[in-house]
Design goal:
The chain has 357 residues and is an alpha+beta fold. The chain has three domains: 105 residues, Immunoglobulins (Immunoglobulin-like); 81 residues, Sandwich (Immunoglobulin-like); 94 residues, Immunoglobulin-like, CATH 2.60.40. The protein has three helices and 24 strands. Bound molecules: 2-acetamido-2-deoxy-beta-D-glucopyranose (5 copies). One 2-acetamido-2-deoxy-beta-D-glucopyranose binds next to loops.
C-alpha cells in the first residue's frame, strides 16, 4: 500500500513537471505597428540551419537561414519585408528574429528550429499583440458627456464614476466598434443632471494599460477686464497642456519640455500661463465670453476642466462719468418734450371739444 502511494505521488510530481515543461512556451507581448524581437538562442556549432515558422492551423514560413545567408524564397507573404535576423550574432548562438510593423494576425505560437552538425533544437514562443489605450477624449455637449478612444486591442472596458458619488445609477450608453484592422473604437455617453458641479471621470481599460479622463465644470462671471482661470491641479507631472476656446479655437499649447505657445488671435488677451497650467487673461470684453477648456495629460490621465466664462458689460459708467451725465441730460430733454406735447394735445382736445359744443 505505502509503496504504491509513493509511486503514485512520484508519478504525479513527474507528470506535473512534464506539464510545466510543456506549457512553458516563452511569452512575449508586442505593441501594434511597432518592432518586436522574438528571442531564440542555441548552442553554436559550425554553420547552422535555421527556420522560424508560425504555428497556426498550418505552418507558415516566417524566415529561414542556411548556407550563411537568408533564404526567403518560401517565406509566407504575410511576413514579406518585415523580418530580419541579427546576422552578426548568429555565430554566437543568437537566432532572435526582428519583426517590424507588428500586425494583429501575427499573434500566435512561433517555432525557432535550429540544426547544427551536433543535432537540432526547437523552442516555442507565444506572441501576443496589444494596442494600448492612447488618446482619450471627454467633452460635454449640453448635459450629455461623451468619453471616447480609438484603435485599442484587445477589446477595452469603459467605466464611469462621479465625485461626489451619485446615488442613482447613471444613464449611460457604451458602443464598441471593431475596425477593419480588428482594432476597437469605444465611445460612451452619459446624461448628467443639469447644473451639477460634479466631477465626471471615465476610465478605459485594456489588458496592457488604462487611461482616465476627468471632466470638471465651472462657471466664472467677471466684470473686470482681467481674470485668471485655473486648470485642474494634478499631482503627477503633466506632459501636455492645451487651452481651447468654444471647443475649436486653440489658445495655448505646451508640450513636456517646450515653452507655452499662444496662438496669434489670442496674443492680445493672454497675459501669462502658470507652471500648473493656469491662464491669466487681460483686456476682456463680453466677446471673450464662452467656454474655456483646459486639457492636461500625462501617461495615465487626461484632466479636462471646462470653465464657462461670462464677461459682464460694464456699460462704461465707471470709467466715464461724463457719459452718464449726457445720458441723464438727454433723458430729461426727451421727458420735457413729451410732457409739453402731451399738454398741448390736451389743450387741443379741450379747444376741439369747446368748438363742437
Ligand atoms: C540577440 O541580439 C539582439 C540584437 O543585438 C539582442 O537584442 C538580443 O537580446 C540577443 N538575444 C539573445 C538571446 O542573446
Ligand atoms: C440622492 O441624494 C440626495 C441628497 O442626499 C437626495 O435628496 C435624493 O433624494 C437622493 N436620490 C435618490 C434617488 O435616492
Ligand atoms: C451604466 O449603465 C448600466 C446599465 O445600462 C449600469 O449597470 C451601470 O451601473 C451604469 N454605470 C454607472 C456608472 O452608473
Ligand atoms: C494625488 O496624490 C494622492 C496621494 O499622494 C492620491 O491619493 C490622489 O489620488 C492623487 N490625485 C491625483 C489626481 O492624481
Ligand atoms: C462662444 O460660445 C458662447 C456660448 O456657447 C457663445 O455665446 C459665443 O458667441 C461664442 N463665441 C465665439 C467667438 O464663437
Amino acid at each position: 500500500m505505502k509503496i504504491k502511494t509513493i509511486w503514485f505521488l512520484t508519478f504525479l510530481v513527474f507528470m506535473s513537471f512534464w506539464k510545466i515543461a510543456l506549457l512553458s512556451d516563452a511569452e512575449i507581448s508586442c505593441n501594434f505597428k511597432q518592432s518586436c524581437i522574438l528571442p531564440c538562442s542555441f548552442q553554436s556549432y559550425g554553420e547552422p540551419i535555421l527556420h522560424w515558422t508560425q504555428l497556426e492551423s498550418s505552418e507558415l514560413r516566417v524566415h529561414s537561414y542556411y548556407d550563411n545567408q537568408d533564404q526567403l524564397g518560401p517565406q509566407n507573404e504575410n511576413f514579406r519585408g518585415r523580418t530580419s535576423l541579427f546576422q552578426d550574432q548568429i555565430s554566437r548562438g543568437n537566432a532572435s528574429l526582428l519583426l517590424r510593423e507588428v500586425q494583429l494576425q501575427d499573434q500566435g505560437r512561433y517555432s525557432c528550429y535550429i540544426s547544427t552538425i551536433k543535432g537540432h533544437e526547437e523552442s516555442i514562443i507565444r506572441l501576443s499583440v496589444d494596442a494600448p489605450v492612447s488618446d482619450i477624449r471627454i467633452h460635454q455637449d449640453g448635459n450629455r458627456i461623451t468619453c471616447s478612444s480609438e484603435g485599442i486591442y484587445p477589446q477595452p472596458e469603459l467605466t464611469w464614476s462621479t465625485e461626489p458619488p451619485s446615488n442613482t445609477t447613471l444613464q449611460n450608453r457604451t458602443t464598441v466598434h471593431q475596425t477593419e484592422e480588428k482594432l476597437y473604437d469605444i465611445s460612451s455617453s452619459l446624461t448628467g443632471p443639469d447644473g451639477s458641479d460634479r466631477i465626471y471621470s471615465c476610465t478605459i481599460r485594456t489588458r496592457r494599460n488604462q487611461r482616465r479622463a476627468i471632466l470638471r465644470q465651472k462657471s466664472v462671471i467677471v466684470s473686470s477686464r482681467q481674470t485668471s482661470l485655473s486648470c485642474s491641479a494634478s499631482n503627477g507631472s503633466a506632459s501636455k497642456l492645451l487651452w481651447r476656446f468654444n471647443h475649436s479655437q486653440v489658445i495655448v499649447s505646451r508640450s513636456s519640455q517646450s515653452r507655452a505657445t499662444v496662438t496669434e488671435e489670442w496674443k492680445l488677451h493672454v497675459k501669462s500661463v502658470s507652471e500648473s497650467g493656469g491662464l491669466s487673461l487681460q483686456d476682456l470684453s463680453p466677446q471673450q465670453g464662452g467656454i474655456y477648456i483646459c486639457e492636461l495629460s500625462n501617461e495615465e490621465e487626461t484632466l479636462v476642466t471646462s470653465t464657462f466664462l461670462k464677461v459682464e458689460d460694464r456699460g462704461g459708467t465707471k470709467r466715464h462719468p461724463g457719459v452718464s451725465m449726457v445720458v441723464v441730460a438727454a433723458a430729461a430733454v426727451i421727458l420735457c418734450v413729451v410732457l409739453i406735447r402731451r399738454s398741448r394735445n390736451q389743450k387741443g382736445l379741450q379747444l376741439y371739444e369747446e368748438a363742437t359744443r
